[in-house]
Amino acid sequence: MLQLDPRMFEFALTSFIAIMIIINPLSTIGLFLYLTKNDKEAGRGKIAFMCSLASFIVLVFFALTGFLIFQLYSITLEAFRIAGGVVLLLIGLRMLFPPASEHKEVHAGSSIWLVPLAIPMTSGPGAITTAVVLSTQVNNPWMEISLWAAIFVACAINFVVLRNAGWVDRRIGTTGAEALIKIMGLLVCAVGVQYMITGLKAAFPLLA
């Protein structure tokens, strides 16, 4: 019988805090509102759920496999950061400067819950790295369960926040929502550029 590790509660708490800080669902609200602006409440709820579920699966997967998947395909974390940065930069620019002909509806059945909401916005390079680093501290099944629980709670909170993004939208109105989208678009661009800078510096130390 497995003996309960007294460190598991402390490890679960520190893991949750670390993952929650990196995920930061509040920073995703603007992007979520932009991508789901033509969806009804039920559609937004489905996208929020799928995004959070996908993020949980991604983070648990990397917590279990570490960098093995990267090594299998000869992908470096730096390359993942740069690619994620490019995706976020392009999305941020689209939020700041939407095409004049943008009339296409974004349906809840599309893959926006996966890219860019789950990857790289929620479970991006930072969250994946955090999960991998935390997994290196696991030395028994109880701590493994603690890490999974921490990831689950963080992703559940992410779902609750995104699920209620419509409440924020209704309170601030159309003008406020557009202003929030512009502000978050600038922040998404900045996050994307920072991902690329970090990745490039790590890949090319002479640039540091």
Characterise this structure.
- With 208 residues, the chain is mostly helical.
- It has one domain.
- It is 75% helix and 0% strand.
- It is built from nine helices and no strands.
- It is globular and about 55 Å long.
- Residues 103-109 have low confidence and may be disordered.
Topology, pairings included?
Layout: H1 7-23, H2 29-35, H3 41-65, H4 68-72, H5 77-96, H6 114-122, H7 125-135, H8 141-163, H9 165-203
Helix pairs in contact: 1-7, 1-8, 2-9, 3-6, 3-7, 3-8, 5-6, 5-9
Key features of this structure:
9 helices, mainly alpha, 208 residues, 75% helix
Could you report the average pLDDT, rounded to the nearest whole number? 85
- What radius of gyration results from the CA coordinates? 18 Å
Distance separating the two termini: 51 Å
Structural class: mainly alpha
The fraction of residues in strands falls at: under 5%
Give the helices and strands as they follow along the chain.
HHHHHHHHH
The major β-sheet equals: none
- Please, how many domains? 1
Q: In oligomeric terms, what are we looking at?
A: single chain
How many strands in all?
0
What is the number of helical segments per DSSP (H or I, 4+ residues)?
9
Which residues form runs of ≥5 with pLDDT under 50? 103-109
Task: Give the structure's gist in a few sentences.
By secondary structure, the protein is an all-alpha fold.
